[in-house]
Every structure is written in structure tokens, then in C-alpha cells.
Design brief:
- Belongs to the short-chain dehydrogenases/reductases (SDR) family.
- InterPro entries: NAD(P)-bd_dom_sf, Sc_DH/Rdtase_CS, SDR_fam.
- This protein has a domain of about 230 residues: Rossmann fold, CATH 3.40.50.720.
- Helix content is about 50%, strand content about 10%.
- It is built from 12 helices and 7 strands.
- The mean pLDDT is about 85.
């Protein structure tokens, strides 16, 4: 027991476990980005992959269905806001295991998520609830449904959280709240499940918003925010709001599915998945993330707040001019040229 504990602390020992088609991995959020990349990667490891996609007819789902040896990759539709699709995922998994007695669930990877950029006052309650319901409550619902199978097979649960769970950023407060909640749930669940032989792992990937569709609807989200502004909010925020969302155009719009070319990230994921002594926390980050995260542990809040503003490098608010302060009867904000 002591040796095992020391191995986890210092990452000593541990051997790579062999995987084969009898090892099932269920991954959520596979339409694009990290989920799609992990599906392709696990398929290359010779595992049987259940790729849960939000839209079974999406380009990502179709691309996965067209991979060689399609019997080892199964695409299912999963909407974490719809309990019936969660139950269907559990049914599909159980059916696969029942029909193949030598198969076992090796890992559940909770990757699906959604993100909305915008200051807290701007975001509508619908947008706030969406992030909490998908990122946190949806993950909890799916995991609870699958826990009996996970426990019986001594599977691993790999929860994809975020750097925002370690260091919250402005303009992402509901997203950060959902990911921080996921992190603390992960930590408690890890302790609970250890005695049943179940590993629960927190996997924090680097920033990959440019290669995923997690913020693809940002300009539509901005229009929804603007449509719910009061006259006073329009007067106060319009110029700043327009510049803010102009800056975010680069991440908006749906991108084709792609296999992320980040070998270091995939190497860490493989360690989390197949090492006999996995770490409880994996962090994959560029150097600047590491620097800011370390600084946040030592700097007083007033300094850290200043550094975070520099870190995010977003447009800033400017006091409106006297002309902008004049009363207006109606004013509509146009975003993305609409």
C-alpha cells in the first residue's frame, strides 16, 4: 500500500497495459476537436471505441463511421441535456458487453462541453444554464448512469476539465464555475471509487479552442446577449461589446473535424488510459499557461488580477464619451456584420 501511494506521488514504476478490441472506451463530445481526436487515437490503439456525438449526422460522426475497421468504432447520439439519450448510451454499452462476454469497459471519458464568452452581466440565463447543465450536470448524469458498469469492470473515469478550473478567467465565469465544479466532483469521486478498484482522473488539456467547435456559435451567442440588453446597457456597453465580439470572430464558425496534431497531449492521454499507476491529475499546457498558473499561487490578488488581464489580452472597456451618454430612444447592436 505504501509503495503504491509513493508511486502515485512521485510517478514511480507502473507499466503500460496492453489493449485490444475487447477493451471498450466510451468518449463523449466526438463531433470535433479533442473528442474526435481521442476517438481516432484510441481506434489506432486497436480498442473498440464508442464515440458519443451530439449530432449523429455531423461531419465528425460521418468521418468516424468511415474509418477503416468500422466494427471497432461505434457512433451514438448523446445529448447530455436529454435523459433518454443518456439511457440509450447505457443500453448500447450494456448490449455490446452482453453480446461479447470477453469485452470490458476500460474507460469512460467525459469530454463533452460547451463555452460562451461574455461578461457575466451580458450572458442570458439560458446561456448560463446551458454551460452548467452540459459541462457539470450532464457529465454527472451520464456518469451516474454508467457507474454500476464502471464499478463491475474496474474501469477508469477520465474527466476532461479545463485550466479554468485551476485559474478562473474573466468573460468565462459560468464556464469556469462549471469546470471548477467538475474538478471538485472529480476529486471526491476519486476517493470514493478507489476502494472499488476504479481510477478517477482529472485531465486538463491545453488551449485548443482554435481547433474545436466549443465556441463555434459565439457570434450567435453575442446576438442573443445584445437582443436582451436594456437601453441603459446598450448605452453603457455597445462600443466595448462590439469590439469584444469583433475580437472573437477568429474562434467563431464551425470547423471541419480534424485529428489534433499534438503528440505530447496524446502521449499523456495514453499514459492516463493504459499505465498501471496513472496520476490523478494530468496537465497539458503551453509555457505561458504554466507561468500564469504558478504565479497565481504566489501573487496577491491585486497583482494577479492585473496579470490575468494581460494574459487574456482581450479588448478593454473605455468610458463612453459625452455624445454616447446622451439619451437614446432605440438602439440596436449589430454583431458580425448582421
Amino acid at each position: 500500500m505504501l509503495r503504491s501511494t509513493c508511486a502515485r506521488i512521485f510517478n514511480w514504476g507502473g507499466k503500460q497495459l496492453n489493449v485490444s478490441p475487447s477493451n471498450i472506451i466510451l468518449i463523449t463530445g466526438c463531433d470535433s476537436g479533442l473528442g474526435y481526436a481521442l476517438s481516432v487515437f484510441c481506434h489506432s490503439l486497436n480498442m473498440t471505441v464508442i464515440s458519443a456525438c451530439h449530432n449523429i449526422k455531423s461531419n465528425g460522426a460521418r468521418a468516424l463511421q468511415n474509418l477503416n475497421d468500422s466494427k471497432r468504432i461505434i457512433t451514438i447520439e448523446l445529448d447530455l441535456l436529454k435523459p433518454d439519450t443518456i439511457r440509450n448510451a447505457q443500453h448500447k454499452l450494456k448490449e455490446l458487453i452482453d453480446n461479447n462476454p470477453d469485452y470490458k469497459l476500460t474507460a469512460l471519458v467525459n469530454n463533452a462541453g460547451t463555452m460562451c464568452f461574455g461578461e457575466y452581466e451580458w450572458q442570458t440565463w439560458k446561456q448560463i444554464e446551458m454551460q452548467i447543465n452540459v459541462n457539470l450536470l450532464g457529465t454527472l448524469r451520464l456518469t451516474k448512469e454508467l457507474l454500476p458498469i464502471v464499478r463491475q469492470h474496474h474501469s477508469r473515469i477520465i474527466n476532461i476539465t479545463s485550466h479554468c478550473s485551476l485559474m478562473a478567467l474573466p468573460s468565462l465565469s459560468p464556464y469556469a464555475a462549471s469546470k471548477a465544479g467538475l474538478k471538485f466532483w472529480n476529486d471526491a469521486l476519486r476517493i470514493e471509487m478507489q476502494k472499488y478498484g476504479v481510477e478517477v482522473i482529472n485531465f486538463v488539456p491545453g488551449s485548443f479552442v482554435m481547433s474545436s467547435n466549443i465556441a463555434a456559435r459565439q457570434q450567435d451567442q453575442a446576438k442573443e446577449m445584445a437582443a436582451n440588453f436594456s437601453i441603459e446597457q446598450h448605452k453603457f456597453y455597445d462600443d466595448y461589446f462590439r469590439r469584444f465580439n469583433e475580437h472573437l470572430k477568429i474562434i467563431s464558425g464551425f470547423k471541419p473535424p480534424n485529428q489534433m496534431q499534438d503528440e505530447e497531449l496524446l502521449k499523456k492521454f495514453e499514459h492516463a488510459l493504459t499505465n498501471s499507476q496513472p496520476k490523478s491529475l494530468y496537465i497539458h499546457e503551453p509555457l505561458r499557461y504554466k507561468i500564469y498558473r504558478l504565479l497565481s499561487q504566489w501573487c496577491p490578488p491585486v497583482i494577479m488580477d492585473f496579470l490575468i488581464v494581460k494574459f487574456v489580452n482581450m479588448p478593454t472597456y473605455h468610458q463612453p464619451s459625452e455624445e454616447e451618454r446622451q439619451p437614446v430612444k432605440t438602439k440596436s447592436l449589430k454583431v458580425d456584420g448582421s
